[in-house]
Every structure is written in structure tokens, then in C-alpha cells.
Amino acid sequence: MHAPNQRGVHVSAGSNMDLPKRKRAMGTCMRLAIIDCCSSSIRFYFTSSSPFSPCRFNSPWHLAFLIHSLFFPDIPFVQQFQSRSFFSFSAIAYLSFLIDIDTALDVATMFTSSRRWIFIVSPFITLTLVYYFFLSPHSDPITLNFHGQWSPSEQEPMILEGTRPLSQSEKQNQQQISDDFFEEDRCGKLRKDMDDVFVVLKTGATEAREKVPVQLRTTLQCVPHYAVFSDYEETISGVRVYDVLQNVTESTMNEAPEFEIYHRLQEVGPEGLTDEEMGDDSNGPFGKTNNPGWKLDKWKFLPMIAGALEVQPNAKWYIFMEADTYMVWPNLVNWLAHLDHHQNYYLGSPMQIGDVLFGYGGAGIILSSRTMYHLHNYRAKHQQELEHMTSLEWAGDCALAQALKDVHVELTWAWPMMMTSRPQEIDHFSEAYGRQPWCYPAVSYHHMSPRDIEEMWRFDRGWFKSGKNALLLHGDVYRELVHNNSLAERPDWDNLSPAIIDFDPPTEPSTDACADACSQNTDCLQFSYNHEMQSCKHASTTFGGVATNGTDSGWITHRVQRLLNNFQSSCPEVQYILE
Predict the structure, then answer these.
(1) What is the mean pLDDT of the chain?
(2) Between the ranges 79-88, 254-263, 478-487, where is the mean pLDDT highest?
(3) Taking the model in full, what pTM does it have?
(4) Strand residues in 110-171 grouped as ranges (E)
(5) CA 370, CA 339: separation in Å to the nearest integer?
(6) What are the Apple domain coordinates in residue numbering (predicted)?
(7) Are the C-beta atoms of residues 365 and 348 closer than 8 Å to each other?
(8) Got the DSSP string for 168-235?
(9) 308 pLDDT band (50/70/90 cuts)?
(10) Does the pLDDT value for residue 272 go beyond 60?
(11) Domain that holds residue 535
(12) What is the rounded distance in angstroms from the CA atom of residue 248 to the CA atom of residue 244?
């Protein structure tokens, strides 16, 4: 991976043209008085005249400052000295002072033989300095280079005399500008770190216009190389969306029933689809089985390989995500820095259909460049066979795993770094596959709504903004995002407690009875009660949960806090999945 870089953000210096003319005149006189002391001291060294001589405008520094102030009146006083143009004016004025005949004779007679070389060499030095500064890359006198090392919140506010206090809207605008500078600086680092990574956002016409825009303005904002692949070519928020199914053979398109909606899309566009076809069908354990767009989706996985290599053939890593996937890029970059793209890598969160183990597409799939080219070359020779195999599968990520198995690339289980659910639906404390999420960096989440993505993006951005946090662990996400938003009794909320509790007569099922039963069980940390089903559930761990009408939820807060305290310092080192 590449080392971070610094990107300059240019801001114009503030103008003082609205100050009263009298104050500007007084300011100019004060400047000239200060310059006079400096120039007179120089003259005193050469001519032994009084250092407190009257203000003379034939003094080269006076002349330089006056000319520069006329040409660049918007530059603050201190920056006048720092700008290249002021130094150039000063050098030219001093050169003219040296070649003035009367002054030159006066200076020449006052020089001792040991000092006369100054009179001869000074013009050449001056011209050299002028030439150097005009070639300097810092060429704009009203341009500052900002590297994210300063922010208004860290500085005392400076109010200039004669200026009015900022209104609330102006303060908000200034804060937005500061945030934009931070984002540009942060994006500059990520763009450099991700220069050898190519990201594919897979979507479909039935969801793209709803879900892609939020990805473009949040998670993809700092990604330098990406493409959006779909089943219909269009432009969304100024970004081209590619029809990746053009890589499927014509015979398969004509034979596979899933392509019926594809043919209509090409004829009438998304506007020609019915409400049922455009609807976001509920996503069950076997996917959106009633949605024709979801059924068509399985055909995109293998063609995406050729499509990605066509757009970006020289990347080291290829990331495939979906429109409801959230990726934590700094964590991903740090993880990939521990891996070798010259090796075969197929990283994903494990799922299984029959005897096929595959990386779950919703959590994201990561392939090394070596794996990409192996698979691409294999598909080029066996496209018909692979399309027949895909027709027999109901999930495209499973078909992708079958093809990778043919080229002897096995899945690296990336759970819990790559998650199949939202942060609020994850058990951060329990163990699975021999791993516990708490100490692992969070790389991806799935089933994220546009609102979830916006919220996670703001949290992600704020977490890394201070520069103190190099990684975001699952424990950090629970503590700062999930825990802070959950621990209170909530109506119309399901905290995903799994264990059903039965009541013995004469106890009637109710929210209060469910809460009392949980408090009496020392292992119970949370409860939920569904009024329609009269169902009470408990959990010995804790979740955030989801909004659900007719369900009440609550937590035994002191027990949750005790569990949290036990985990607070349980990460002696960051854990990565490397094999």
C-alpha cells in the first residue's frame, strides 16, 4: 500500500477592502513607520547616519511596501512579508537604490576597501533572488497551503476592529468549510492508500435510483477507482452505471427465464416496470425470492470479473460490494497491507448452500489480482459451462465460489471483520467460528438502509477525524454507536432477544411480567415482549435491535454495563484474519 500523502487546499486570504479609508490610511502609515526603522538601521550601518532619520520614500523598503500594498491590498500585514511578490518588489527597489547615481557615489565613498565588494555583488545577488522567487512553486500571493494541521476549533477567534460578529448561519458556513477541508485532507490520504484498489458497486435497476446516490455521496466519496455495475445502463448523480450483463452469451439470455425482466428493461427502462417488480421485497434467509430483479442478480457475479478487469486491469485488489453494503475503508486498507496480492485470496463472510461454502456477497467479496486473472482466464475458456452452472444455482455468490473452486481458490473466512448484518443486529460479545467480534476491525456491514449508511458514515468520519484513531474495532462501534442509542425501555422496538420464556399460571403475559422474569434471572441482560403474539423473549447477551410495531424492549442496564466493563480492556492487540 502507498504511504499517506498531503493534499493542499487553497483558501483565499480575507479581504479588508470594506474598512474605512481613514483606518486604512493610518494602517499604511504605521506600516511605513515600522519599515522606516528597519531601512534606516541598514542605512546607518553603511553611512553612519542616524537610525532615527525622517521617513524617506526613496528608502527601498518603503517603496517596495507601498507598491506591493497597492497591487495586493487584500493581503494581511504579516503575509505581506511572506509573499513572494513582496520580496520581489523589495529586491527590485533595493537594486534601483544601489544603481541610483548619487546614492551609489555616496555609498561607494563611504565603503572601506574591505566592504566595496558588497556594492559590486549586491545587484547580482538581488537579480538571482528575484529569478529564484519567480520560479518558486508558491506563486500565488493570496494562496495558502492547508494540510489539515489547523482547524478553527483549536484556535482562539480573532476579531478585527471594524468588523461585525458573524451570524449563526455564517458560523455554520465556516464550520462546513472546515469540515470540507478535513474531508478533502482525509480523502487525500485514502485516495493515496486506495490507489491500487478497485471497487465495484453491484446494483440493479429496481433499486439503483434509491440506493446508489447515498453511496456516491458517502462511502464512495474518497474512493479513487470504482465502477457501478447493474442490469441497465444509465447515469445516476452524474456517474455512469454499466450494464454488466452484456457479457452474458445471447443463447443464455434467450433461454434463462430470469432474463425476461432484463429484456423489458432494455426496451422500456425502469419506468416500464410494475410496482411489484420495483418493490423492495423482504430479504429472507434465501434472499428476495419473490423479486424478479433479485433473481436476475445471480447472473452478474461472473461477468463482473471481466468487467472489472476491463475498467481497471492494474489494481492489486478488487472489492465487490452491494448497494446496501457499508465499507470502513481505513480498516480495509490496514488489513490489505498485511496481505500479498500476488497470492490467491478470496475473502468473504462464510455462507453455505449444500456442500458449497462461499463468501456472502452482501458483506462484500475481496479478490486479489492473482485470483482475478486466474478466474478471468478460466471463464474465457469455459463460459458456456459456467453459465449452465449458474442457471442451476439460486445465488450468484454461490456460483462465483463454484468457479473459484474450479481454479483451486478457497474461501478465507473473513467473519467477523466482514459482517452480514447491521451493527445494531450483531452480537458483539458472543463467539462464533472460534472468534469474538470485539477486538476485530470492522470492515463491512450489510442490510444498511440509506439512513443507516448516512449515520454510519457520519460516525466513521468523526471517529477518524481527530487523527487519534487508526482503526475502528467492533467494540468501538458497540460502545459508541449501539450502546449509546439503546439502553432504555423502548416501545415499538425489538432488541432481537432469542430465547422464548413461558409463564406459569396464574401469571398473565405482559411487558411488566417479561421484565420481572428477566430481572430475577441473573443471566438475563435484556427482554422483549410482542403484544400480538403475547411472546416474551430473553437474552444473555445484548443487541441494539430494530424498530418493530407492537413489540416492547428493555435492558437490565447495570448487567449490560458490567459486561461492557469486562470487555473494555480485553484487546491487548488488534486481531486480523490473514488465512
Answers:
(1) 77
(2) 254-263
(3) 0.68
(4) 143-146
(5) 12
(6) 509-541
(7) yes
(8) HHHHHHHHHHHHHHHHHHHHHHHHHHTTTEEEEEE--TTTHHHHHHHHHHTTTTT-SSEEEEESS-EE
(9) very high
(10) yes
(11) 486-568
(12) 8
pLDDT, tens digit (0-9, with 9 covering 90-100), for 8-27: 333 333 333 444 444 454 55
- Do 54 and 193 lie in a common domain? no
Q: Examine the domain organization and report whether 299 and 386 are in the same domain.
A: yes
Q: How many residues does the chain have?
A: 579
**Residue 556 belongs to domain with CATH number:** 3.50.4.10
CA dist 507 and 179 (Å) reads: 56
Amino acid identity at 539? A
Average pLDDT over residues 469-495: 87
Decide if 384 contacts 413 (C-beta within 8 A). Answer: no
**Residue written as grid cell 450483463:** 245
**Residue 356 belongs to what H/E stretch?**
strand 356-359
Residue in this structure with the C-alpha cell 542616524, named with its chain if needed: 50
Peptide bond between residue 76 and the one before it cis (omega within 30 degrees of 0): no
Strands 356-359 and 493-494, sheet pairing? unpaired
| Residue 329 shares a structural domain with residue 397 | yes
* Greater pLDDT, 71 or 263: 263
Q: Which residue has the cell 494602517?
A: 27
Query: Which is nearest to 140 in space by CA: 63, 74, 226, 56?
Result: 74
**pLDDT value, residue 569:** 73
Specify whether 192 is located in the same domain as 80.
no
Q: Are 326 and 477 in contact (CB under 8 A)?
A: no
